[in-house]
C-alpha cells in the first residue's frame, strides 16, 4: 500500500523502439527513486506510438519489451502501478473532451509536431502528417490528468507539452469547476541527452539506432558508438566554448556517476588540454558498466509480465474511471454505461 499524503507522480514512455540513455538519464532513473517518495503510475503509451509509421508486429513486441526493460531498470510493481495505455479506454475518452479545450493554433506550434512532421515529409507521399500526430499532446494531457497527477518527471523535450497540459487543465477548471490539479514538471540534472552522431539533435528512439545508445546494448557496439561520437577538431582558440558533442559526452559522464572525472576533464580543457580520446574512453567504460548491469537484471526478470500488467492496468483504470465520472458530470454528459 502507498502511504497516504504522497504526491501523485505519473509518466510514460512510448514503445517506439528500445530504451536508450536519454530516456534513462532524463526520466526513468528518476522514476525508480520516486517510487519511494511518491504515489507513482508509469505507462507504456502504445497509442502514442501509432502517430508515426510502424509495423503492428513491432508495436506488440516493443510494448512487451518496454515493460520488461522498465522492470529491469528497477520499476517495481510492488511500489508503482505500471500500465499499458490502450488497456485503459478512459485515456481516449478524456482526450476527446480535453481536445475541445485545446486550440488548433497551439497544437500546430508544438516543436515535436514540427520535428516529427519534417521527419515524415522526408519519408514519402504515403506517410502524411496525421491528425493523430497533431493531437497527440492532448492525449498526453489526458494520460496525466485522468490520474490527476501532481508531478510529471520527464525530459526537457516534454516541457512544452506539460505547459499545454497545464493550460488545458486551467481552462477546463475555469469553465466547468475545479476537477484537475495543474501538474508540475520534474527534470533531472541531465534533462536533454543529445545524439552522439549528431549532437545538435536530441537522442531519440525514432531517429534510428545510429542516434542512440540502447540501455541494454552489447559492449562492442556501445564502445563503437561512443568512440565514433562527433566532437570537434580539438584546435579551438583559447576561450572558445565547448562544442555540443563534447558537452554532451561530459553530461553523460556526470549522469553516470563520474562527476569528478568530468570536472577534471573540464579543468584540463580550460588549460588548453583537449584529450577527447580519453574522455570517450571514460564515457564508454562507464556506459559498459551500466549496460552490463542492466542486461544482467533483464535476465532475471521472470514471471508472466503480461498478466501482471493487465492486473495493474485494472488498478490504474479504477482511478481513471473515478475521474471520468466526475468529468462527465461536470461537462454535462450523461452518466457512462460502465
Ligand atoms: P521517440 O523518438 O519515439 O519520441 P524518445 O526517445 O523521444 O522516443 P519517448 O518515449 O518519447 O522517447 O520519451 C520517454 C521519456 O524520455 C520522456 O520523459 C522524454 O522526455 C524522455 N527523453 C526522451 N529523449 C530524451 C533525451 N534525449 N534526453 C533526456 N530525456 C529524454
Ligand atoms: Mn519522444
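^ C-alpha cells above, recovered residues below v
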Amino acid at each position: 500500500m502507498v502511504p497516504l499524503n504522497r504526491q501523485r507522480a505519473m509518466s510514460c514512455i512510448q514503445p517506439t523502439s528500445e530504451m536508450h540513455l536519454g530516456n534513462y538519464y532524463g526520466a526513468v532513473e528518476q522514476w525508480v527513486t520516486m517510487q519511494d517518495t511518491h504515489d507513482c503510475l508509469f505507462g507504456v503509451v502504445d497509442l502514442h506510438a501509432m502517430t508515426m509509421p510502424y509495423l503492428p508486429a513491432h508495436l506488440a513486441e516493443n510494448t512487451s519489451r518496454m515493460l520488461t526493460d522498465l522492470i529491469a531498470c528497477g520499476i517495481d510493481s510492488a511500489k508503482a502501478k505500471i500500465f499499458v495505455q490502450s488497456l485503459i479506454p478512459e485515456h481516449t475518452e478524456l482526450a476527446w473532451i480535453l481536445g475541445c479545450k485545446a486550440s488548433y493554433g497551439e497544437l500546430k506550434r508544438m516543436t515535436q509536431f514540427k520535428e516529427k512532421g519534417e521527419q515524415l515529409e522526408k519519408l514519402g507521399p504515403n506517410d502524411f502528417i496525421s491528425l493523430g500526430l497533431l493531437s497527440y499532446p492532448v492525449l498526453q494531457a489526458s494520460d496525466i490528468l485522468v490520474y490527476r497527477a501532481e508531478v510529471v518527471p520527464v525530459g526537457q523535450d516534454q516541457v512544452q507539452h506539460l505547459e499545454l497540459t497545464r493550460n488545458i487543465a486551467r481552462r477546463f477548471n475555469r469553465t466547468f469547476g475545479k476537477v484537475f490539479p495543474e501538474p508540475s514538471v520534474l527534470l533531472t540534472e541531465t534533462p536533454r541527452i543529445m545524439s552522439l552522431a549528431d549532437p545538435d539533435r536530441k537522442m531519440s528512439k525514432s531517429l534510428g539506432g545510429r542516434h542512440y545508445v540502447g540501455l541494454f546494448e552489447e559492449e562492442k557496439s556501445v564502445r563503437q558508438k561512443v568512440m565514433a561520437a562527433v566532437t570537434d577538431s580539438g584546435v579551438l582558440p583559447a576561450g572558445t566554448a565547448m562544442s555540443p558533442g563534447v558537452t554532451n559526452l561530459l553530461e553523460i559522464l556526470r549522469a553516470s556517476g563520474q562527476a569528478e572525472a568530468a570536472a577534471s576533464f573540464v579543468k584540463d580543457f580550460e588549460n588548453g588540454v583537449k584529450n577527447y580520446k580519453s574522455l570517450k574512453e571514460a564515457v564508454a567504460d562507464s556506459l559498459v558498466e551500466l549496460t552490463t548491469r542492466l542486461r544482467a537484471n533483464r535476465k532475471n526478470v521472470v514471471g508472466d509480465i503480461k498478466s501482471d500488467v493487465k492486473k495493474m492496468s485494472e488498478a490504474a483504470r479504477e482511478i481513471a474511471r473515478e475521474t471520468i465520472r466526475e468529468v462527465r458530470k461536470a461537462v454535462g454528459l450523461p452518466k457512462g454505461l460502465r
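Residues 305-331 form the longest helix (27 residues).
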